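> agent: user asked for a holo structure of the chain below bound to 2-acetamido-2-deoxy-beta-D-glucopyranose. Plan: (1) validate sequence alphabet, (2) canonicalize SMILES, (3) run complex prediction with ligand conditioning, (4) return tokens. Step 1... ok. Step 2... ok. Step 3 dispatched.
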Amino acid sequence: MGLWRLRLLPCALLALVAAGASGIPPHEDAARVARYVVHACDWGALATLSAQEPLRGRPFSNVFSLSDGPAGPRGSGVPYFYLTPLEVSVRDLQVNAYASLTVSLAQTPYCKKKGYDPQNPLCAHIIFSGTVDKVNDTETDFAKLALFSRHPEMESWPRDHNWFFAKFNITNIWVLDYFGGLKTVTPEEYYNVTP
Ligand SMILES: *[C@@H]1O[C@H](CO)[C@@H](O)[C@H](O)[C@H]1NC(C)=O
Ligand SMILES: *[C@@H]1O[C@H](CO)[C@@H](O)[C@H](O)[C@H]1NC(C)=O
């Protein structure tokens, strides 16, 4: 009995630690998986429709730092950005605010640890479609807290660049977190779920 306890206890502890470390919700809960991945990621690939010659009208994908809230068990689900009108993709957005944002657990230690290739659906990735919009004054405080707490360098970015806070206004969500193809999640499901 004593021996069993000694042998079982470390296994149970290890299982708990492993669950806490990965923490990814079950793949059936696609909305929760989406919220989990967004909160785990510090950046995303943002695709715009180029307004710059010679690419005008073609997709243009670029890296942006983001945050849906300060580090902690859960975020708001809203991807916030800190942008300047001098940035090439932001100039695209001024012409056409439609964009696509992709985040993936490949950006965290999770997939390497599990041995999942980034293209493997088990290395969960989320694709959003929508628009990138300036946040209003009410929301600015939270956007600033969310971004500056996870990207401390932002505070020292050149003041004369006219930085502003923006968010991804989500209209469509696709979740790739298991075999069998893309799953769709509505923005309502995404925002109403408890991550
Ligand atoms: C600011 O935006 C938030 C989130 O979209 C919204 O709930 C709030 O009503 C807006 N505030 C004002 C003053 O427009
Ligand atoms: C978000 O996108 C929807 C659909 O394109 C649009 O109707 C709505 O006005 C947008 N919200 C904001 C705050 O721009």
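> agent: step 4 complete. Summary for user: Strands lie at 43-49, 59-65, 80-83, 98-104, 125-134, 164-176, 183-185. Confidence is low (pLDDT under 50) at residues 1-21.
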